[in-house]
Amino acid sequence: MASANNVTEFIFLGLSANPKVQRVCFVIFLLLYTAIVLGNFLIVLTVTTSRSLGFPMYFFLSYLSFVEICYSSTTAPKLISDLLAERKTIPVWGCMTQLFFIHFFGGTESFLLTVMAYDRYVAICKPLNYTTIMNRQVCAVLVGITWVGGFVHSFAQILLIFRLPFCGPNVIDHYFCDVLPLLQLVCSDTFFIGLLIVTNSGALSVITFVVLVASYVVILLHLRSRSSEGRRKALSTCASHITVVVLFFGPCIFIYMRPSATLPVDKMVAVFYTVITPLLNPIIYSLRNAELKKAMKKLWMKTFKLDEE
Predict the structure, then answer these.
(1) Deepest in the core among 38, 70, 84, 274, taking most CB within 10 A?
(2) What is the C-alpha R_g of the chain?
(3) First-to-last C-alpha distance (Å) of the chain
């Protein structure tokens, strides 16, 4: 940190100062986080153990579920433990670590959703060349690119924040460390840094979202020439992807595509994209995908039979 810093820890105000509300929130978020881990892990386990799901779409879906577990785990455990703590603190190095991994996994997810849209484009618009274009090597490279993209995005955020002077106060009106709440505590002018953050996070969210919407528009236009059955199946798959894209990018654009100022509603919006979206993703994909539901049922029956033996 810069030499002007005299802050060694930050204090979170959390979601509420009311002890009764905190206890209720503790139970709710503990259940939600457990459901996130179990639901997404079930998808990872189902895809990796089922031969019928050996297609690129499910390969990417399993990685998305893994990223969702990691993404929610950067904030949810700390949030849950703080709901029972009288003093909600985090050391500066812990705050920077949390900030890095939030944007690392968040950036990785945004790039992964783009890769999944490209996979659907190739599958629907170029079906005869699908297995050639989306072979295992290409899928592995695309996943690697999403991780590298997430790292570059997160590293840029840390470079913007790490050297800023925090001279006090050290109270963050949030439940985790993020760039905009931290900028409110910096004892220097942050206008230029705020613009860079909007460029890095906000513009990334908007551009990725526009690219994703454009790709699905192309897919939908291409479906006009398909049979009604083929159109229905493709639309069902794309509907799941579009729903997840809107749920993820909508709150991100609201938070990061504006000047470096915080609003009271920001914490509720943050709950949505750090807890609710990772919870809904496995539900959305499993409910609208017959093959995935069938594979889950087989896995359940196989596990149940082993337990009986």
Answers:
(1) 274
(2) 21
(3) 59
